[in-house]
Amino acid sequence: MPRTPEKKRPGHLLASPESGISAATKKQGTEVEKRKKRYHFAPINNLAGRNKDDLGVLRSISVSQVRNSKMTNASRQIKKTSNSKSSSTSPVRAANDLKEAKRVAASIKEVKASRGDDVPSEEVIWRYSPTKGELSDRIGSSHHNSEDWIEFERGQDPSSTPVVPKMLKNVLSFANISEPEQTEQKESLSAQIRNSTRSRGTTESLKESLRDIDDILDDMEGDLALKPKIPKINEFPSSPSRIQEQGKRELGKVEETHTPSDVSSSDGDDSLINLLTQQGSKKQDMTGMSVDVDTLDDSLLDYLDNTGKKAPEEEVEIEIENVEAMLSQSLKMAKCETPELEEYIQSASFPYRRKGVARLVLTKITEISLPKIGRQKILSCIDQDGKEGSVVVRKPWVYLEFEKGDVIHIIEGANFENKRLVSDDKNPVTQLVNDNLLILNPDLLLSATAVGGSIECLRRAVLQQLLEDSQGEPSIVMTIGNIVHELLQSALRYKLNHKTITIKFLEEKLDCLLELFSFGILQCNEDLIKIKDEIKTTHLKNIFDFVDQFVKKSNYGCYVSVSGTRKTDPLSIASIIDTEENIWSPIYGLKGFLDVTVDVLCKKTRSVVPLEVKTGKSKSISHEAQGLIYTLLLNDRYEIPIDFYLLLYTRKNEITKYPYVLHSIKHVLMFRNQMTTKLKYRLKEYRNLDPMKQNLPPLLQSSYCDSCNFKAPCMVINNLVEDGDGESSGLKNGEYELLTKHLAKSHSKNAQFFKKYNDLITKEESSITCINKKLFHSQGESQDSVGSHCLSNLKVVETVNDPADNTIYLHTLARAKPSGICASMLDSHLMKKDRIFISDEAGHFGIANGHIRDIAEDFIIVSTRRKVLNNWVPPERSNGPPHIRSVVDDSITADSLMRTQNMVTYRINKNDIQQGLSLARFSLLNLFLPPVPPGQVIADEASGQVRLAKKSEGGDERLRSILVDKVAARFESKCVFSLESCGEIIPTHLNTDQKRAIEKVLQAQDFALILGMPGTGKTTVIAELIKILASAGKSILLTSYTHSAVDNILLKLKDKNIKIARLGMKHRIHPDTQVYRPCYESLKTYEDYIKEIESTTVVATTCLGIREINSSLRSKDFDYVILDEASQISMPVALAPLRFGEKFVMVGDHYQLPPLVKNEAARIGGLEESLFKILCEDHPESVSELTIQYRMCEDIATLSNFLIYDGKLKCGTADVRDRGLDVPHLSRLAKFQTSPTIQRWIEDVLDFQRKVVFLNYDSCSDIQEKSSSDSITNPGELTIVQQCIDGMLECGVEAKNVGVMTLYRAQLRLLKEKLQDERHEDLEILTADQFQGRDKDCIVISLVRSNLEQKSGSLLKELRRVNVAMTRAKSKLILIGSRKTISSVPEIEKFIALLQDRGWIYELSANFLQAYVFPSTSKVQASCDKKLSGNTKPKVKSIDANSKILRNKPITRQAVSEL
Q1: Do residues 1318 and 1419 make contact, with C-beta atoms less than 8 angstroms apart?
Q2: What is the mean pLDDT of residues 745-753?
Q3: Spatial distance between the Cα atoms of 1450 and 859, rounded to a whole number of angstroms
Q4: C-beta separation of 424 from 653 below 8 A
Q5: What is the residue-averaged pLDDT of the chain?
Q6: Which of 562, 1150, 1163, 1238 can pair with 1168 through a Cys bridge, CB separation 3.0 to 4.6 Å?
Q7: pLDDT digits (tens, 9 = 90+) for 621-680
Q8: From CA 1387, how far away is CA 1389, in angstroms rounded?
Q9: Residue 641 in contact with residue 634, Cβ under 8 Å?
Q10: Average of per-residue pLDDT across 517-531
Q11: Which of 1326, 1330, 1353, 1331 is nearest to 1342 (CA)?
Q12: Would you give the distance in Å from CA 1069 to the centre of its chain?
């Protein structure tokens, strides 16, 4: 990240769109140094000998010479006439311009004739040496305001004035005389000015190429010859609510300062000739290469010269066409069929095209500086059809950071015919401002709240997206705001349906809401009666007055103020469309909840507009920004223009109408686009091993920073990443040092550590969040057809109220029409209680959110709080403009509702939207935040009570010293909290390793680590440790990555008289541990609530569940934090719970599965290394090993010892050592044999003495893997697995005691499809990762890989995964694979040799698959046969705990079983 430039503190806030730095910091009254010009004129007498035809042609000349001709009065008149014309792109205008060009050409002939072609014009040599200076960001430099120009003009003899022939105007470029003469042509012009003349009339382009001496002198006045490449940026307006009158005043100012040429240059894509004539400007692309635009092919100059000759007009027109065709050909981008281009085309694809919206992907960015325009970027683009084009970007959009591969949306306006020019230019004919809008990275949906907050400080808004503190805090302001919002929405709905409203209704509704929010009020330590009085006094009466006055059909007597004016408009709310409407817009890249969507009568026009409600004391510019964003969201949802929005402040009963102002919309979208440039890593998976480029917006450097709640994180990041200091921070003297002085001692190590892991987190986040955009880029039918979490092509069959809650609606949906997708909805992987959202198949996403109530083969029932799914009636159905129906109007009949509902079809998606790793990133940053000073006290504002600050309320200095500074763990010689010896405390029934581990924990002053090998009783050790700590009065935070791991420990603590609070969603908690879920709602006072929290001994939750407010309300941190499954949790995630404890204990085994990391670059970079592994390697003295296992028989343990543990793993008892799989009726296999001569391999495999069997099928050449795309399967192994399972089941082995495993997900899908009949219903088929922490009597593993090339892939190289797979088996392990292929893995080769030495490899014969025939009972096959015959009706069956869809989802099955 670049270092923030030094800047003085301003007195107030004013945001700039480019940097977010206050414009108030600019120096006022600074005088601009006047440029000095030196002109030297000398007569030239040696030009008369030249050919007559060459007199009007610009040739290569020396750098100090420019040949000019005298301008006569006639030519001046021609120039004046030419410049008075405004450019236009309409056909009629083009025709008029062509006539004008012909007239000009005729006038040129007369001028030449009047002066005599044989008489040479007066020639001069003109040397110009301006002083270097910065280019102003003004649109051109007007000589009317230049004193130098006035003096120069007065002092010149008319005969010595340098003049230019008309045929050379707009071709002469002073860039050629500011540098040494160049003879080489460096690069074509195509990237800069591609298609620049296509959108304009040819004659118009020629006309604009005529350039007079005033323009040349203007450019000299602008000092363009020696200017830097990029000019300074104008201060962007800071207010998003510019009023129309101000806009008119600004328009007047612009008209006063712009010459006619200014106006013409801003119409359409006129950059071609401007590029050819710009002084000193260079073409610059993103690679940093620059090429002089002026060193171009002379053919164009020759042509422009020839057009001034005495040629017939029709020849001129032909030549114009020829040159235009030549330019079009030379400027056309060469297509390059590369994977990169294919990727761009794919990114540009969008299944739901919207009229007036162009989706493009940038292939090249070129930045130039044009006279009278300033900075301009030419974006070379490609669309989803592979068509290439260009977009010209000027102010304000030019300030955005574009990169190759970025996606943009051009929202086409009505004011300009050129839809590929986005700027603030004005149409020279209509004087309307360009209203084309640009959306950068539209697939990144930012909330209206986030974008609104960015106007105050862009850096803070980005940090709020990147960081999330796990320590929540109750807020009474937010609680009151929620109550008032719901009160107003209820009042609006009531008035709509009852025509009148009373104070009594509002008071009764307020009582209901207060009861609903009573616990939230109690958490804030506020009195319920006090809050009720405050709401009644401050808000209720105002709400009544507003609703009573404005909610009616007529607007007579109803007036609202119009923002920025002194006038009022008659306005009433004729209908309420919806409340809390949730809109996602991938068109604008925005999302938000609209407080109220209303149908208003303003003057004599009905309009649908958003009503934004604010309940706070103060107004903010962000409120206006949110309102503007809601107009865009409504425009996307209903595809109608939204002309204004309403902003209501309930405290003041003040309602204001804010018109849709184009300038303000651009301003808000600029901030939204700027935010996406810092967050766009979330859109595409980053696969490069190099560090990512991450730049935060610059520091605001304002007094606003003094009270910012993100001040500490902001300054610490500035110190670690941006090399900031107090002088450049903008804070008060000494404050920056106070926030960062603790980092000075090991600053380089601290910065390196943070940069490394922040980069890894960001890479991993890119892999997690990039899938979110797939929702918008794939049609529902394509998702539905592959059995994903989606159902498409749906219609609403019925809508009813939920009997238990009248505010919830139950929608029954079925297939709308037959299609190629699977008819059964049970194949969609959607289940009861899944969180879902409903979209229509016209491209409107998230129109309703809810849960699945029931699902069957041919219907699904979902619950939502939205009554009507589709309330948009298209023009063809409404006999007029689109009609928006009310969602909350109770008068809508069922028949009318259904007619509206099914005008579109719907899709249902599981709510799998990923939220990123902001919590993990904050946990990392918390290592470096300022720690809480010893003895610091915190006073409660409400009660005035004082308490000591907890260490968790500041930075984690202890963990930073352990991780960064490698400070060793400290241990006492005895128990740290008891006078008794550890031996007297520890239970005697534990084995030696378990006792030693607990003793280590009791002696630890900082932390202790327990490495528990497979089956060694880690859960038992944790449970016993909790009992010991609880008996000593210690508080414990028990956490893990999964709910099942937490619940397994709690199950061992049942009936132990320990007060436990199990936090988390009810349906995710094991039924037997739900008794520990706290019930705080019954508490009456804040004191009782705090007492209940403080008296809890064990708080159990997941690593992500620590965001519960209850933990932050404790007066002290926990004495111990116990983290189970620690080896499966990445370091940043593990840091979150550890900050809340004085000491911590981590339990795991890093020789088993590592943390799940999706991003390969992050995995290689080190994110796969868990905090547990890091500490084990850095601090081996803190590790206790559990080596005595009680799961596996000796043969299976031997494999694990060979691969990983080097003989450390031991069997706990003789029974464990000798256990085998009990097969009650092995003799039954005989009846399934086909021939006594064929190898009876299943009988051999199921032999009790065979504990480990590797089934090698190399002799059967028909069994080979199959590869398609990135998936690998092996149908032959599938058959072997099925016969093994069927053989065991026929012999009396229960399916629940058997597990099937594979390392490949494609093979897993085949196994589940093959083994889904009733006999296999209790059979678990999982991957090795899913089997972690579980075990079965028998495990069958399909290794999949078998090929002639003996390529075994990479999965088997991960010995930890292989170790987990094998150690899930207790009595029998069956491996199925090709010995030749598997042996090719160097890491496995010796393992196969071990199997051979022990006699555990079983060679299958060539015809072994013909040995047995088991009965086919596949329910799926029978069902398919019936459907094909058409003799059956689909059976509707609700999902319960015994449903086959839950067979391989044990946790979900447990949750469903309680229903």
Answers
A1: yes
A2: 94
A3: 25
A4: no
A5: 78
A6: 1163
A7: 999 999 999 999 999 999 899 999 999 999 999 999 999 999 999 999 999 999 999 999
A8: 6
A9: no
A10: 90
A11: 1326
A12: 30
**Closest residue by Cα to residue 924 from 1139, 1144, 1155:** 1139
Give the separation between CA 924 and CA 716, rounded to whole angstroms: 12
Residues sharing a CB contact under 8 Å with residue 406, sequence separation 6 or more, in sequence order? 361, 362, 440, 441, 680
Given strand 1183-1186, what is the order of strands in its sheet? 1060-1062, 1098-1102, 1036-1040, 1118-1123, 1141-1148, 1007-1012, 1183-1186
1105 alpha carbon, distance to own chain's centre: 23
CA distances in angstroms from 1447 to 9, 789, 1303, 1318, 1323, listed in the order given: 64, 17, 19, 11, 7
Please choose, from the candidates 461, 433, 419, 942, the residue with its C-alpha nearest in 3D space to the C-alpha of residue 668: 461
725: its two tokens: 């200091």
Residues 6+ away with beta carbon under 8 Å from 1265: 1272, 1273, 1274, 1344, 1345, 1346, 1347
Q: Yes or no: say if 701 and 730 are a contact pair by the CB < 8 Å rule.
A: yes
Burial class of residue 844 (count of CB atoms within 10 Å of its CB; 0-12, 13-18, 19+):
buried
Contact (Cβ atoms closer than 8 angstroms) between residue 844 and residue 637: yes
| Better-predicted residue by pLDDT, 620 or 873 | 620
What is residue 1114's predicted lDDT score, i.e. its pLDDT?
87
437-440 and 568-585 beta bridge pairing: unpaired
Q: Residue 1429 — pLDDT band, cuts 50, 70, 90?
A: very low
Give the confidence band of 883 by pLDDT, cuts at 50, 70, 90.
Answer: confident
Q: Give the pairing of strands 1210-1211 and 1188-1189.
A: parallel
Q: How many CA atoms lie within 13 A of 1241 on its CB side?
A: 26
Q: In this structure, are residues 266 and 274 in contact, taking their beta carbons and an 8 Å threshold? A: no
Phi, psi (degrees; rounded to nearest 5) at 392: -95, 125
CA distance 1192 to 2: 57
Sign of CA dihedral 1098, 1099, 1100, 1106: negative
DSSP 879-924: TSS-EE--SS-TT--HHHHHHHHTTS-EEEEE------SHHHHHHH
Q: What is the pLDDT of residues 25-68, one digit of tens each?
A: 333 434 444 444 443 444 433 434 444 444 334 344 443 343 34
Q: Which two tokens stand for residue 378?
A: 């030419």
CA distance 897 to 894: 5
| Residue located via tokens 């040629």 | 311
Neighbours of 1281 (CB within 10 A): 26
Residue 461's alpha-carbon distances to 4, 398, 466, 573, in angstroms, are 17, 22, 9, 34
- pLDDT score, position 776: 79
> In Å, what is the CA distance from 709 to each residue of 320, 461, 1012?
63, 12, 42
The bridge status of strand 357-370 relative to strand 407-411 is: antiparallel
* pLDDT at residue 1124, as a whole number: 95
Using alpha carbons, select from 1243, 1221, 1430, 1458 the residue that is nearest to residue 1339: 1221
Percent helix, strand, coil in the chain, to 5, is: 40, 20, 40
